[in-house]
């Protein structure tokens, strides 16, 4: 009884914690982690519904994670499945019913769904018990499915999920769904802002900004681990940074189409106007109401600064746009090295990597080897050397984010 009360207290606390997370991707990852913790499950995945498909968003596996070097994340396949009764998660999404399976290798003959052992064979991991819970709103809309794997008892032995686990997960899923709806609304608002920029500049797509944001969080987490920052601080910051990074070029909404959509090279005068998007983006957040406003303004203003001081806009007041410092030529000098805020340094690297890697109206995508050679070449010039080092450490995770947010085909 005492254990049950403790779990209920934990879930009530979690409800409050989830409502503090604003970014959709960060929230999905957290929901999966907490669902596993509540049920003491080894592994799991979270799926999000889009039309008649479920797409895997995050997957976790403690057993496989422990086999990896410290700081390295588990790489998993990105795929979609139909919303129908043929798979476990597809069945849950199609029917809205919870499914609790003691042993997936011994499904009852009456089961509509089947279990695909392909992942087990590839990874050497053995799936036994599975609990799949719908993320369904009180109006019946299906947002997705949490699927957790291999419940464990106090001695670490894999056991079936209990009736209590079902109840805990159902309660947790109900509150997680409310948090998801709010996060989806926040993401939709951000993407609408970005869509305005996309109407002006075809480079600013939803896929591009989601990738840049995802890369930035991966780099930040590794940077924070090196400095042994408190986990709670890292969790809070990654949530804010991801949203702020999505809006890094939002100032382009104020730049003329004549310049943004010019197919050829800019004249010096046109380039000077184009550079103003950093200041204009920061000014959108000038009335600081929250930490998000502060970080978003910083990212917008400084993500075109260079480590060697050759970037822009340099020492300029983000509110008035007036120079704070000029050199002997009367020019505003760029900020350099650690004068550039860390989030600006991180987003600069993420933005350039994505721009080089992807096809644009004015260029083809670079070959991966050429992109990586360029990133190394720019270390100490455009980018902070430590961040370039971190970038290569987390490159497998970055490639996975690229797969999660592909550009739409023309």
Report on this model:
The protein is α+β, with helices and mostly antiparallel strands. It has two domains: 2-183, 2-Layer Sandwich (Beta-Lactamase), CATH 3.30.450; 201-404, Hypothetical protein af1432. Helices cover 50% and strands 11% of the residues. The protein has helices at 2-18, 24-39, 62-66, 88-95, 118-123, 163-200, 206-226, 231-246, 257-260, 268-283, 291-302, 342-357, 368-377, 385-393, 395-404; strands at 41-50, 53-61, 80-82, 99-101, 130-136, 142-152, 158-159. Strands 1, 2, 3, 4, 5, 6 and 7 form a seven-stranded antiparallel β-sheet that branches. Strand 5 (130-136) and strand 6 (142-152) form a beta hairpin. Helix 7 (206-226) packs antiparallel against helix 8, helix 8 packs across helix 11 (291-302) and helix 11 (291-302) packs across helix 12. The radius of gyration is 23 Å and the shape is elongated. The termini are far apart.
> Which superfamily, in CATH terms, is the homologous superfamily of the largest domain?
Hypothetical protein af1432
- Based on the structure given, which CATH architecture of the largest domain is correct? Orthogonal Bundle
Ends apart, CA distance between termini: 59 Å
Secondary structure tally, helices: 15
Largest sheet: 7 strands, antiparallel
Proportion in β-strands: 5-15%
Tell me the overall shape: elongated
- The proportion of residues forming helix, as a percent range, comes to 40-55%
Spell out the helices and strands N to C.
HHEEHEHEHEEEHHHHHHHHHH
Structural class: alpha+beta
Number of strands: 7
Radius of gyration: 23 Å
CATH class of the largest domain: Mainly Alpha
- Can you tell me the CATH topology of the largest domain? Hypothetical protein af1432
The overall average pLDDT, rounded, is 91
Low-confidence stretches: none
| Count of domain modules | 2
